[in-house]
Amino acid sequence: MKLNNQSVAGIVIILFTFFASLQTQAQVTFRPGLRAGANFSHFTKGNNYYYDPYNPNSNSSSNNIDYSTKTSFYIGFYGALKLSKYYTLQPEIDYSSQGSNYSSSTNRNVDLNVDYLSFEIMNKFTFNDKFNVHLGPTLDFVVNKNFDTDTNVDMAFVLGMGVNLTPNFGIEARVKKGIIPVIDFDSNHTNVVFSIGGTYTFDVK
Questions:
Q1: Which residues span the domain enclosing 106?
Q2: Helix, strand or coil for residue 12?
Q3: CB 145 within 8 A of CB 152
Q4: Above pLDDT 70, what percent of the chain?
Q5: CB atoms within 10 A of CB 140
Q6: Rounded to whole angstroms, how far apart are CA atoms 162 and 199?
Q7: Domain CATH code at residue 160
Q8: pLDDT in tens, 115-140
Q9: Does 26 score more than 50 pLDDT?
């Protein structure tokens, strides 16, 4: 059974509604929040094949290809479902602007931009009410791009850590590694993203 973007969004909304209803239980709290910050992304070198985004049929072996880091942004919201003192289940929906800077032996240099709508399930472990480590999977759908990607979906894994500066404000840093090639399946160029930013969690009474 295939799910389109609207179906996935509907499922996520239902999950958020379900999580919010659980806040009536004494041992469970639910707090929505916002997150935003900077992305530092690139494509992996893969099998070192030449790829010209403006001439995709010109692939050949080359040792002078570089997929370097480009800077962009992310923004999203989340629902923090605290199930115990140390563990929080945190579904998220993010708009993540990614891609890579591309340079070749022909002196072509261009930013390859690909933006995703990301659906993430974070497992957050909190220590001393301040420091946390979080990890989980994400399913990303392409919503904007300036070159031909080989697929319009990516699956990735996220590992991060954060600090709660106040009960509402926090900072966090993450690494996300995609597993589906973005361009040229033979060359296996996948997403790598390092992100750093802030969070704001709302109080719900």
A1: 26-201
A2: helix
A3: no
A4: 75
A5: 24
A6: 9
A7: 2.40.160.20
A8: 999 999 999 999 988 999 999 999 99
A9: no
